[in-house]
Protein 1
Amino acid sequence: MRMLILGGSSEASALARLLAADARFKATLSLAGVTREPLPAPIPQRVGGFGGVAGLVAYLRAERVEALVDATHPFARQMSMNAVAASERTGVPLLQLLRPPWTSVEGDHWVPVADMHAAAAALGEAPRRVFLTVGRKELAPFLAQPQHRYVIRSVDPPPPELMPRDSLAIAARGPFALEDERRLLAEHEIEVLVTKNSGGGATAAKLRAARERELPVVMVERPVLPLAERAADPDAALAWLLRLHAGTPAQLRGV
Ligand code: NAP
């Protein structure tokens, strides 16, 4: 079965590993090309945008894709919208592989906000030391709140024009260990954490470290994604693909 995984999440990489070991599938992993050094994948990759819905439709047809898995990051809303539209136009079955969001537990002091502008505003007027883990492309709203001191962690360093003055950039890729997160918060005397509600285990330790220090967490809520069939983890996605494979007659699969 020829299939396309829209990647950019650890779940996409995990699904790619599962499929690489299964001769029933011929899968390609698609990356947007925003990370300078993406992790190597065990299946063929393609890199770069498709050119909107029309481009994705053309790709699905040209490559005779039989199943599409949208395993983009939960905040990659545009790509998820395009996947739904392209699936509707081509009839290629679509699955969203979407990890569950984080939920607060006792001892958390979360401030839920709808977007990055609201996150910057929620920091308030008084200067604070802020640990910012929202990705390097979404820093602009924080430039308007220069009274704070920011420690900014992202996979690639932010462009200098997006760095608030006196801020410190740390380029690092998860997973992050609890001990390291504790040390980071203590070393930089962090007073508040700002994060997207990405969910997943790789970057969750900062939430526990913040809870231990009774720090507030400004939590940017997820965008609303278009409805599609969903799986919460790579194993459930594989099960969906196996059902699809079993239900597709060989002649329709072109074999
Ligand atoms: P986005 O706003 O949803 O997408 C913007 C455009 O980037 C899409 O319209 C598409 O261009 C292209 N694109 C996105 N994902 C692609 C993929 N897997 N393969 C090929 N083209 C893709 O996405 P974003 O928020 O900028 O994120 C870009 C990538 O980084 C995604 O793959 C996402 O999984 C990953 N990522 C995002 C975040 C986040 O917080 N947003 C965090 C970690 C990783 P065309 O319209 O030209 O096809």
Protein 2
Amino acid sequence: MVVAAGRGSRAGGDVPKAYRPLGGRPMILFSLSLFSADKQIRVVQPVIHEDDAPLYQAAAGGLDVLPPVFGGATRQASVLAGLEALVAHQPEIVLVHDAARPFASAALIGRAVAAAKLGAAVPGMAMSDTVKAVDAREHVTQTLDRVSLRAIQTPQAFNFGALLAAHRNAAAAGRDDFSDDAALMEWAGHSVAVFAGEAGNVKLTMPEDFARVESERLAMLADMRMGTGYDVHAFSDGHHVMLGGVKIPHTRGLAGHSDADAVLHALVDAILGALAEGDIGVHFPPSDPQWHGAASEPFLRFAVERVQARGGMIAHLDVTVICEAPRVGPHRDAIRARIAAIAGLSLDRVAVKATTSEKLGFIGRGEGIAALATATIRLPWSG
Ligand code: MG
């Protein structure tokens, strides 16, 4: 279960915390894709705030996870809503994870799954700071023995039935003030074990947390790459052309591979070029009948996923459309928005320009459309 139902108002920003971009991707995507890719996890249940449904759909609509359920007024109520939705799937164990910790690793999930056999287990870190208790006036009342203290993270791991029963009992008893699920299990009389957490599994709460994490992440993505792409399609009979995933009415159509979207094809080649991972024809052969007439958006999604699989990010996409007609200018904003949506980028990382060929050459004679693209990507430095 990935819990993202809070408002996260301390984090500031224009959008709720879970949807704030980290390296161009909404934060909630980090946890959802980590858990959905894990072979040991059968289903992933997102719990979101009701008001965030459109944001969630835009960010995570295509992921292989269960439909989101809406959380309640407290974190505890939100987890209970998620647990009730999971009853139908009869899980043996459940891991409860906060979307505000986007950097959990597959290894941590492995330890959590193993520890769940104990009934209740949480990832913890030894404390390096000295910890003191204070009174209401911020005066120290006690210095705690840090050797016996642990800072607790998520994912927290539980026997599903035991956690569900504890949550139902707490709700029935009118208790809604538990700060985490482990505290609720302690209240219910269960013993809670601690397994090794991860220093990198930080919780992002304040605006400066986001700024720090962004700059640390960018510093690691020091392998800057640029790739170029070029594509041409000839006009044929038809009533529209596809450019950048946008249908533009025209007196002609375009012939060729898939829907002949030269803009998306050039962008795919630019990204694959930056990755040095072949070209669009290698990954989607024109001889393969399944691509005949197909929409080109999955090709761009594939290229973006290749960048993400390498732990990288796309910094910028730039494309120039060259044709005498149709006029691209009126559709420029729609094309930019479509490319940004497909690639999961903010609008200011996508540029679309258009020019003619001054009536020169095959483009000048109105025989086809060309597109030139440049992709700037950042990959982790690997020497
Ligand atoms: Mg093409």
